[in-house]
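Student: Send me a single protein entry containing the residue sequence and its fold in token form, directly below this note:

Tutor:
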Amino acid sequence: MSAGPSAPAAPVVGRVLVVDDEEGVRTFLAESLERAGHEVTQVADGAAAVRAVREEPFDVVLTDLRMPGTDGMVVVRTVRTEQPDVEVIVLTAFGDVTTAVEAMKLGAFDYLEKPVSGPAAIRALVAAALDRRTKLAAAAPVELAKTTRLTFGAPAMTPVVDALARVARTAATVLLQGESGTGKEVAARLLHETSPRAAKPFIALNCAVLTEELLESELFGHEKGAFTGAQAQRRGRIELADGGTFFLDEVGELKPSLQAKLLRVLEERSFERLGGSTSIKVDVRWVAATNRDLRAMAREGTFREDLYHRLAVFPIRLPPLRERVADIVPLAESLLAQLASAAGRATVPRLDDGAKERLATASWPGNVRELRNVLERATILADGPTITVAQLWMEGETAGSVEEPRADAGPETSSLADLERETIARTLVTVGGNRRVAAAKLGIGLRTLYEKLKRYGIN
């Protein structure tokens, strides 16, 4: 005896926040959704919606765009920041679709024009939003083990790890903010690897290292003959990132002309190669990073305010290393293991107690990048398997400011100037005399290296 037809799957129900200043519309929407089994919370203005989103979890937010005071765009931005995995549907008056499209560019799921045709339309849209939210959540389980690349348990990093885990499941644009060397690219890669786009490309570009002309070509690519030397067509990095994540580092260094072109890509999700006229569509998840205050730059007029709002849909601040004291020693030990592996060493140098205390109490203006440079210099200076205070030369320290603790009155420890001279000389030898590479390994600028070579008489 054959089994009868299987029962249809029960519709997904969820917690819905309805935001509208018109009581009649608000009541109609709430009743339509409650009859479909959803749990509905009603609020009459944007300010109340912002408070609700910050205090209660929701699955879908249904908000009017035009409201007195705090409008629907603020509600959309708040949801993207506070609950990035929540889907947002916006309601807009007839003829005001442009604003609704703007909301969708900020991450809204869809829009519905007023007057709503009937309960079926709103139920179908909410059901589709819930379905998408469920699929995204299932597609990107966060691999918590990967967070050790960022932190070893420092309390200051808990909100960062949590925010990355939540936003990774969405398509929201992320702005990583923090001092140089705090690990913004590591955070960007972690975000990509725990997102539904993990199998697609992760493409990075640093805006601070290229001229404006080269940067434009790197971003958009070029056609053959677009400029002198363009002997063949070349795809840009945005095009190469299609389907994946594009990481734009040091975005605050973009010149105004490129800011305008980048804004257009974010708005239209398309561009043309240099010298070309064919529009190329791309599906890219944008992550930007900066060590500058883009909001202040926008106020001053040096960074486009509209571009800032496009990039800062979901801002995350990475705290400096001095605020992450619990991370410093275990992070140093992890970096030493990486350095040993890269150098092909069989054993990993260990830090003695004095060295650990020195690392934990340093101010680290250069953050993780400076810590790595200090450790790399220390491995060069160390005479055995143990790193002591004497080998921890910090940038900016004066000669003799740090000495190895001694129990006897033995020979004086070499001055830091001597250690610096020796470190520079050894590094130059290891890189075959390439001064640019040596400066990068030492963690100093090329001009600073030349000054030190002249001061110490190193050829």
